[in-house]
Amino acid sequence: MARYIGPVCKLCRREGVKLFLKGDRCMTSKCAVERRAYPPGDHGSTTKGGRRRKPSDYALQLREKQKIRRIYGVLERQFRLYFAEADRMSGVTGENLLQLLERRLDNVVYRLGLADSRPQARQLVFHGHFAVNGHKMDVPSYIVRTGDLVVVRERSKSLVYFKDATKGLGRKRQPGWLALDPKTLEGRVVALPARSDVDVTLQEQLVVEYYSR
Q1: Contact, 61 vs 210, CB < 8 A?
Q2: What is the DSSP string of 141-209?
Q3: Among 32, 44, 140, 187, which one is least packed by beta carbons within 10 Å?
Q4: Other CB atoms within 10 Å distance of the CB of residue 131
Q5: Helix 76-88 with 93-102: angle, nearest 10 deg
Q6: C-alpha span between 88 and 91 (Å, rounded)
Q7: Dihedral of the alpha carbons of 206, 95, 78, 73, in degrees to the nearest 10
Q8: What pLDDT, on the 0 to 100 scale, is given for residue 177?
């Protein structure tokens, strides 16, 4: 599948918020949003007449969709499939959509604190460093279920990366729907994620409105 391989800081600047695509760097003064809080490009800081136009409803809906896509690292076609599935589920469509995205394996690895960013977590999963319920899993989009056990494979625990990651687990806060044993690097899905578990400010209703046009 094609992936975006350009400068990720431009994505944050385009959306006007931190998407936390570079891990700890996003929390420092080196963050592109902190240094240049306007969209990239020659005309990012101003528009015609030196003023910024008020965005239309469609523009707000589009930007929110793009922001959520970029946070979770999902391309347009796959995002549409997630939305279609969320719409078929019982409950609130927007919340269902966020729950599906939170349950992606790469996001679970990130939320367990075993990666500094979702892009890094995606790469770790793709390289086969994790197993789900005892089976090697290298599909970042795999949707976990309640009771699933996500573990770092034995052959990967000896790598310098995971040894260093173990030392920093104590300072990383994990959501209530996940539980991690820092000694064994085993994480369990103890519940389905709730809307309150999403750790970024999102307006998922705008996405519902976008696809309902």
Answers
A1: yes
A2: TPBP-TT-EEEE-HHHHTSHHHHHHHHTGGGS---TTEEEETTTTEEEE-SPPPGGG--S---HHHHHH
A3: 44
A4: 18
A5: 120
A6: 9
A7: 80
A8: 96
Nearest-CA neighbor of 69 among 156, 11, 16?
Answer: 11
21 vs 60: CA distance, rounded Å: 22
Q: Write down the residue that tokens 């369990």 correspond to.
A: 188
- Both structure tokens of 113: 């604190």
Reading the chain (213 residues) residue by residue, the pLDDT tens digits are 446 556 665 565 555 665 656 555 545 655 555 556 556 655 555 554 445 678 899 999 999 999 999 999 999 999 999 999 999 999 999 999 999 999 999 999 999 999 999 999 999 999 999 999 999 999 999 999 999 999 999 999 999 999 988 887 867 788 999 999 998 999 999 999 999 999 888 999 999 999 998
158, two tokens? 């000896």
Locate 1 and state its tokens: 């599948």
Residue at 109: amino acid letter: V
Q: List the one residue out of 15, 142, 141 whose CA is nearest residue 68.
A: 15
* Residues 8-11: contacts with CB under 8 Å, at least 24 apart: 8/119, 9/33, 10/40, 11/70
Domains by residue range for the chain, with CATH: 8-100+200-211 (1.10.1050.10), 104-192 (3.10.290.10)
- The two three-digit tokens of residue 31, written as one number: 């963050």
